[in-house]
Amino acid sequence: MTAFEVLFVCTGNLHRSPVAERLLAAELPEPDFRVRSAGTGARPVPLDAVTSAILHELGGDVRGFTARSLDVGQVEGADLVLGLERCHREAAVRLSPLALRRCFTLREFNRLMDGTRAGTPREAVRLAASRRGAVVPPPDETDGIADPHGAPDGVHKARALEVRDAVRILAGILNP
After folding, report:
1. 37 with 10: CB under 8 angstroms?
2. How far is residue 75 from each of residues 7, 38, 70, 81, 137, measured CA to CA in Å?
3. Exposure of 173 in the CB half-sphere (CA atoms within 13 A)
4. How many CA atoms lie within 13 A of 53 on its CB side?
5. Can you give the pLDDT of all 176 residues of the chain as single tens digits?
6. HEC profile for the chain?
7. Whole-number Å distance between alpha carbons of 122 and 157
8. 69 in the Ramachandran plot: left (φ > 0), alpha (ψ -120 to 50) or beta?
9. Residues 6+ apart with CB under 8 A from 165
10. Any idea of the CA torsion for 79, 82, 88, 91, to the nearest 10 degrees?
């Protein structure tokens, strides 16, 4: 059986998605899971000092990270694509419309699963997709985690904690 691949997407692949990638990778066993991240407007640069320090404090591995730009191959290769905001989910779907049923925001996926345990991660994705549209979605800010780029260090920390909390829920869904 091939590894279940999760792809996190944000704008620059500098703050939110690398934090999500590295924290989820620390929670899930290899080789059963593969966790990656990319940005809709990313340039190949390393983590900045603030994000690196926060990620290290939260228990994530900061070594060897370089931002990656989102491409169609990443979307098509992932079993689950999780944007940090709706615009990121939409960007992934524009690249690969057939991936629609595998693309969510991180919080949206958690909300759709609502504590439900599926037998496998792939079953969880199918279940979440079947629940989408069954109820009116909440406002965008509820399903997204705002970009801290350019904000004070305290805002970076607050967003990283939001990501960490959502990743913990996700880890419980994917690997109960």
Report:
1. yes
2. 7, 10, 8, 7, 23
3. 29
4. 7
5. 689 999 999 999 999 999 999 999 999 988 999 999 999 999 999 999 999 999 999 999 999 999 999 999 999 999 999 999 999 999 999 999 999 999 999 999 999 998 788 899 999 999 999 999 887 777 767 889 999 999 999 999 999 999 999 999 999 999 97
6. CCCEEEEEEECCCCCHHHHHHHHHHHHCCCCCEEEEEEECCCCCCCCCHHHHHHHHHCCCCCCCCCCCECCHHHHHHCCEEEECCHHHHHHHHHHCHHHHHHEEEHHHHHHHHCCCCCCCHHHHHHHHHHHCCCCCCCCHHHHCCCCCCCCCHHHHHHHHHHHHHHHHHHHHHHCC
7. 32
8. beta
9. none
10. 10
Length, in residues, of the chain: 176
CA–CA separation, 142 vs 94, rounded Å?
22
CATH class, 4-174 region: alpha beta
